[in-house]
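Here is one chain, start to finish.
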Amino acid sequence: MKIFIIGSGGREHALTWKILQSPKVTHLYSNSPNASLEFLKRTYSQKNISFINISETQHDEIIKFSQDNSIDLVVIGSEGPLSLGLSDKLNEYGIPVFGPSKAAALIESSKAFSKEFMQHFGIPTAKFKSFNDLNSTLSFIESIDFPYVIKVSELAAGKGVFLPNDLAESKKILNKIFVGKEFGLNVTVVIEERLEGEEVSLLAFTDGKTLKALPLARDFKRLKNDNKGPNTGGMGAYAPVTPSSITMEALVETILVPTIKGLKEVNREFKGVIYAGLMLTKNGVNVLEYNCRFGDPETQVLMPLLSSDLVEIMQACITGNLSKCKIQWRNQSAVCVVLASEDYPVGSSASQIIRGLQEFSHHHSNTHVFHAGTKMNVSHKIVSNGGRVLNVCGVGNTLDEAVDLAYEGVKKISFKGMQYRQDIAQEKQQDAYAKAGVDIAAGNTAVKLMTNAVRSTYGKEVLAGIGAFGGMYDAASLQELKNPTLVASTDGIGTKVHLAAMAGKFYSLGFDIVHHSINDILVQGAKPLFFLDYIASHKLDPEIVATIVTGMADACRSVNCALLGGETAEMPGVYHQDMIDIAGTIVGVVDRDHALPSKKIKSGDVLLGLASSGPHTNGYSLIRKIFSKMDLNNTFPGMDCPLLEALLAPHRCYLPVLKTALEHHARPIKGLVHITGGGFFENIPRILPDNIGAELIKWNVPPLFKLIQQCGDVPESQMYTIFNMGIGMVIITDPENVSILETLIQEPIIPIGKLIEGKKQVVFK
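Its structure:
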């Protein structure tokens, strides 16, 4: 293929670098006058790479060159030629082009249009008003309170957004815009509510129908550290970003899907890369702006993470076949630091010789230098030639590693007046927390390790999950029930975690908390919808946390329950060293007409038991005391495994075994009792009418409980108060329904008693 790339910034260098990796490409032409092509020629010596001296505004010359040289694909990098209709003209002549039409590009070239578009289609954005003259704009800002943002509606190369501190500064900015004519004649200004929150860049490939999102990125607009100084085109970026309040899937559905549908509805079908600058506020996501092309400097961190063929993706967007295109990304992080000239962003300094570039080439796998404002002088030396001069990018297995690689690269480069930010992708508060004994990085690492396991539990109902301040679950499916009723429960594992920690066995703890919680709502007839966890400790170990959460995810996935996420907390001083606390909240649903316990529970109903897998999650403070001086690796008489293994057996989940019986048309189950803390004497009476008691008969108690009673010298009555004694779930049913349940429940059912008239209590016969 022969490809012609239009554009001359760091973004275009990154795109060119990625496109040349495609085995399809034999010839590449670029109108970029910077020094990037010299670097690329060294790396891709087997391919023909040529500079074509045609400006991006010379559309007729671009078309003629493309025809004369049988160009297979034109890639337009910047918004200028797109807003002037270059894509449309190329399409008229049958020349394949990656980039939206002039009509679709209006989403970027007019902020006034984009704001009205969002308002019309219900896409969340800040409140705004548009003005075309100085006087009406001044009247408006004098009538409103701070803070607000002043935006030039037209294209402004990333320099048309202003954040004034007071009314006097606002008036200076507006005079500069309207009277100074810096942004041309007939300018429109948008006055917009200033939002606070987490800012991210959401990009997606699209063929006008299908959307394929790129990893979330974050760029740094302000010139100086700590987000101070004037706005720029971008002083750095990193990817991927894991937002704290919403999933990628929810962002796509909330923002990009209605955007693409809306553009098509107003005859502005979009093909190419759509970019939404987002602010994640405490009240939800808002769109700050749209771009009709790749971001700069976001592209410089996204291209190194892309492992698929970019050319194939672009062709799929053009031909409408994006749904068939599988896009893969590396499981790494990338950080870009922009090196700018001395006068940026006010102006462009005189050319300065750049030193240190000889240490870089595109053969480096983890550090890249992308050229933006550079050129070769008459002495064949690379010099600065613009505001943003170079982009130094580090790619690492972690964000911290990528940060280190990027700044190590920066230290090797120098030119007179060079300025850059020293805080790209770094959080100041981490140092303060670290001094207090809290390792934020450990928490972030734990989230990365557990993310895939957690997201494997998600169905289409999950709109926001891991990493969010609050989970979002689409409850539309509940409308299928006649009277959908939510059932919620919160519980913890307790001191069983200490036994597991001593043994170094953490995976089963995830099953313990999920199964315990499912059983708690199962007794009301509910099936689980989603689960949220809480893990706290003196010091977080990312791998241990990830192991526990992976167990939770596997437990949830087996019963079609979403693990929305939760909270990990490191609290030295609150928890003793090596202590872990695990708790969780579950939410399920039941049709109110089928909720348990039934109001028909009566004297004469029978009690049936389902076997437990061990003590489940109760009585472990006593168990640990009793066995503190014993070898837990011993296998005691009557037991088929070592004592430690028996004690750590995961809490059993009774949903799979009871599901068919709960759904049976005869409704043979009147009540269920989960035998947890308080044993039989406290749990069974919870669901009984005031004038009904329970009379139990003894059953064959498993050897483990006999060993606990014997070694601890525990009175028998206390054993039935503390432990489940081999029965984890009790069923209440009519005597005539026992045969039905024996058919529906595919395991032995243990008769353990009946209900009798009298005091609401439990007695043994």
